[in-house]
Amino acid sequence: MFMVLPLVPLPVSVTEPTGMLSLTAATRIIVENDADAAASVLADVIAERTGLRPAVAGPGHDAIRPGDIVVRRTARQGEQYTLHVGDTARLEGADAGLFYAAQTLRQLLTDDREGWALPHVDIEDSPRFSYRGVMLDVARTFFDVDTVKAFIDRASSLKFNRLHLHLSDDQGWRLQIDSRPLLTERGSTAAVGDRPGGFYTKDDFREIVRYAASRHMVVVPEIDLPGHTHAIGLAYPELVEAPVMNDGLLAQAKELGEALPAAGEPYRGTGVGHSSVKIHGDATWDFLRDVLTELAELTPGPFLHVGGDECLGTAQADFDVFIERVTALTTELGKTPIAWHEAGSAQVAEGTIGQYWGSTTPAGEHADHARRFAERGGSVIMSPSNTAYLDMKYDAEFPLGLDWAALIDLQTAYEWEPTAIVDALPAQAILGVESPLWAETIETLDDIDQLIFPRVAAIAEVAWSPAATREWTSFRERVGGLGAVWDAAGWAGHRPSEIAWSTR
């Protein structure tokens, strides 16, 4: 009888011969074909999980012997990898594939009370979707560089490859822009409630990009436009319209005791839809060209996210003009624009990617908006708020999170299919999946862990594993085996009682 291997996301193919490979002080990591980076990652994850740090042997090593772990970089490109464990362990793939193979091996490490071991296994693996993202909102709450790196560690361990940073919102502007210094001098000082503000220097941002790349994640920076722009007005009031109240904002402010947004004053509430840049002003477009040019120069990845959501105080015709123009500007700067699905109302630039954040049962024109990105030669990232939003509460009593989209327990986060949401959207037009973490209710890394674990593992499997192999009962058992893996890494999180969590 085979053990249940705690593999999340589930690989494409797993075969389990009988037997175990013991890890001892004599275990070596053998490096072949310049796989040094992957070998270093593997040594770190083995040491973290077991306390053993295998010696790393490079060119000129002794003959491979039983118990060794061989890391071989292959010419085949992409994120696919193979992992074989028998008398030796062998990991093969290109750079990203080897990194993911190391994460899989981390999950396989087993404490059998006689020592650490790996079960014999043969794995062939590759991702379903090329875009597998998580988003961190650093605008409502500012998180420092070390916290962002910790978030990257958690996400990359589950084979996510995109980090979407929500860098601006009504509450704060979070990135140094040399041509517009008042954005950080005045626009970065606040956050939700009484939390401190903050911003990333350009060197900070470069370090985040570098660290993400070392974990095979591409940073997708977002400047939210034309709404969610109250903080811009603190720095450059001539560029923004006066706040426009809406019924939802007024009701929420009354219920939560939040102050309403006021021109020229930091906004520390959580209401939305009240702000807009001046869409037809020449000064606005000079500003946007300056900002997006610097952001493009800072960003080696192919994407710039330009927002486009919740512009409740903006006339539809004005919104459409703005989206058409800002996506064209982004394309001109050599980047692929991404925009929230509302932007599909406009003639977005050819190839613009939409990010769908509506329900798994689309309301109103949400599905139409999403389809239009594909019609314009683009694609769609699926982020349904009632299954993929990591900031929603697990249940009504959970102390962190919101509930406007849904209460999302682990099974709800797992049991949805990206291709089944928007009718008549071709499956090939779905670029991938992203799971956002908005920050209205969180302040610390521990808060982040409480909301993302274990649901981020469910989203990881939706994004990586073949649809035909996904099954809740299997996932429930496998994810429980990751309890000890996450504990060893120092990742706390929520542990739903319906899951049998491992402790060894």
Automatic annotation (TrEMBL):
Reactions catalysed, as given in the entry: Hydrolysis of terminal non-reducing N-acetyl-D-hexosamine residues in N-acetyl-beta-D-hexosaminides
Pfam families for this protein: Glyco_hydro_20, Glyco_hydro_20b
UniProt cross-references to CDD domains, sorted A to Z: GH20_SpHex_like
Coiled-coil spans in chain: none
Enzyme class: hydrolase
Domain Glycoside hydrolase family 20 catalytic: 129-466
EC number: 3.2.1.52
Record keywords: Glycosidase, Hydrolase
Domain Beta-hexosaminidase bacterial type N-terminal, residue spans: 6-125
Family: Belongs to the glycosyl hydrolase 20 family.
Protein name: beta-N-acetylhexosaminidase
Source organism per UniProt: Microbacterium murale
Lineage summary: Bacteria, Bacillati, Actinomycetota, Actinomycetes, Micrococcales
